[in-house]
From TrEMBL:
Membrane topology: Multi-pass membrane protein
Entry's localization field: Cell membrane
Main location: membrane
Protein name: Type II secretion system protein
InterPro entries associated with the record: T2SS_GspF_dom, T2SS_GspF_sf
Parts of the chain that traverse the membrane: 6-25, 81-100, 112-129, 254-272, 292-309
Origin species: Hydrogenovibrio marinus
CC per GO annotation: plasma membrane
Length: 313
């Protein structure tokens, strides 16, 4: 692999990394200064201040762990064995990638270097894809869940009993989320807090509508069965409208995908099958600048096309 090309990439990346680190460090310093000033105004001694700051650091570290576990939970990865396997795979790939880059850098070509550098991203991509598929499946299940809840209410069940019935009979992944809701209800947790946590776990507009409906009904009253039935009807109509919209915009979306991907596919083809024609862009300083500018413009254009075709409803 061309060491000069690698050094150029590192030289371009390092200033942005240093800038991000500096801004984050400055924000943390400002936060610590404000905390120290607040503790001094409260008349707390220096030794006690250090204990409080240490406790806050432990809390922040726990929050990072909780955010990671919440992210895995949204992907349906809840069993300890699966979590350990995923973490072990990430650590192994990270160590293997680092070892190969450090020890075999001089004998690597560009293609092998890129593949090796991307190895640690595979477990992360797996979690992201699994999370998206799980959310899409829950979105399709939501109208059916609302219909089942309406039938339970018409049969004489209360809202708690209806949720418990859905938790026991509804398939995953939405049934699993409902089991968590009923478990928290059995522990005596406030319904509003349970619904808010359910909304944060599911991250769907349908869940937001459902949560707001239940909270308003519990505080103001009303015919919950009729409201949920109308909500289910609106969700189904929204699904039909979304399918029609995808059909009507299929040509435009294909054109945008082709325009955005054609230059990259052409560059990849030339790099793999005609590498001599790419030497100017990989070895010459002017060619490298032209390549970087072109990639930035292609990426910017792709993002703009994606935003132009994104219709929110």
């Amino acid at each position: 692999m061309d060491i000069g090309f690698l050094l150029l990439v590192v030289a371009i990346t390092i200033p942005f990394a240093i800038l991000a680190f500096g801004l984050n460090w400055k924000a943390l310093q400002h936060k610590d200064e404000r905390l120290q000033l607040l503790l001094k105004r409260a008349g707390i001694e220096q030794t006690q201040q250090k204990k409080i700051q240490k406790s806050l650091y432990e809390i922040n570290r726990s929050k990072t762990y909780l955010r990671l576990m919440s992210w895995l939970k949204k992907a349906g990865i809840t069993e300890q064995i699966a979590i350990y396997q995923l973490v072990a795979a990430e650590v192994f790939l990270l160590m293997a990638s680092s070892y190969l880059i450090v020890t075999r850098l001089h004998s690597m070509d560009s293609k092998l270097f890129v593949i090796t550098a991307l190895l640690p991203l595979f477990p992360i991509a797996y979690v992201i894809i699994r999370k998206q598929k799980r959310q899409e499946k829950m979105r399709k299940q939501f109208p059916e869940m609302l219909d089942a809840l309406v039938r339970a209410l018409h049969s004489g069940y209360g809202i708690d009993g209806g949720l418990n019935m859905i938790a026991n009979e509804f398939p995953q992944p939405l049934g699993q989320e409902m089991k968590e809701v009923t478990r928290q209800l059995a522990l005596g947790i406030n319904m509003r807090e349970i619904l808010r946590e359910f909304q944060s776990r599911v991250e769907l507009q349908e869940a937001q509508f459902f949560v707001v409906t239940l909270i308003i009904q519990r505080e103001t009253g009303g015919q919950l069965a009729a409201i949920l039935s109308e909500l289910s009807r609106l969700m189904r109509r929204r699904e039909v409208f979304q399918a029609k919209l995808r059909t009507m915009t299929a040509e435009s979306r294909f054109t945008a995908i082709f325009i955005g991907s054609a230059p990259l596919l052409y560059l990849a083809y030339k790099y793999l099958f005609d590498p001599k024609s790419m030497q100017f862009f990989l070895s010459d300083p002017l060619g490298q600048k032209m390549l970087y500018v072109s990639l930035i413009l292609i990426g910017t254009g792709t993002i703009l096309l994606k935003k132009m075709l994104r219709i929110r409803f």
